[in-house]
Automatic annotation (TrEMBL):
Ig-like domain ranges (all copies): 38-148
Position of the signal peptide: 1-25
Upper classification of the organism: Eukaryota, Metazoa, Chordata, Craniata, Vertebrata
Molecular-function GO term, any one: signaling receptor binding
Name used for this protein in its record: Ig-like domain-containing protein
Length: 203
């Protein structure tokens, strides 16, 4: 009975530490609720990132236009993606020709869970809704791009507010980082507390 109590305590500590680690698995993909409005001929960044930081360097990242070909059609044809990245390689053969030389991801962004897309020299043809996705995680997010001649050219050179997370998500991200840093400490202390309880109980 005494051993069962100590063992149950150890299991509880392990469950506590795993709860911190599982936060990464629940991290959702965030795009932008507001449309991104830019002037033609300028550069734009379409925001898309995970709620919590996660290394996406070895993942598959897809950007496509909403209203284009269906998923099954994409797999059976070429030139369907705005941007396609797989395990460190940009797959240009499956990208729409007009985006080949104009799209890229943010430098070092994937290592932080940021898969925002940069489009240079935007035109009126770029108007529409874009979708970023991580196929393996079955997660998607949408961003609407509006190209308007009424927007001052200089405004698109400034950092877009929509690329940053709302304060509530930033606080959750910081809490998750703190929680992960305590995982090995909780596991270590849990083991010795269980051992200490066994010694006390067996006296």
């Amino acid at each position: 009975m005494k051993c069962i109590f100590a063992f149950s305590f150890w299991i509880s500590m392990l469950n506590l530490s795993s709860s911190f680690q599982s936060a990464e698995g629940r991290s959702r993909l965030i795009g932008s609720d507001d449309p991104i409005i830019v002037a033609p001929g300028t550069d734009v960044i379409l925001p898309c990132r995970l709620e919590f930081e996660m290394d996406l360097v070895n993942k598959t990242i897809e950007w496509s236009r909403v209203g284009g070909k269906t998923e099954s059609a994409k797999r059976q044809s070429w030139n369907t993606y705005v941007f396609l990245y797989r395990r460190g390689v940009k797959l240009t053969a499956m990208m729409t020709p007009s985006y080949l030389q104009r799209t890229s991801l943010i430098d070092d962004g994937l290592s932080r869970g940021d898969m925002s897309l940069k489009i240079t020299n935007v035109t009126f043809e770029d108007n529409g809704t874009y979708e970023c996705s991580i196929p393996r995680r079955q997660q998607r997010a949408k961003v609407q791009l509006v190209v308007s001649p009424n927007v001052p050219t200089t405004s698109t050179r400034k950092p877009l507010q929509s690329t940053s997370l709302p304060d509530i998500y930033r606080r959750k991200e910081n809490l998750q980082k703190v929680g992960q840093s305590f995982v090995p400490v909780i596991t270590f202390l849990g083991f010795f507390l269980a051992l200490f309880l066994l010694l006390i109980i067996n006296r």
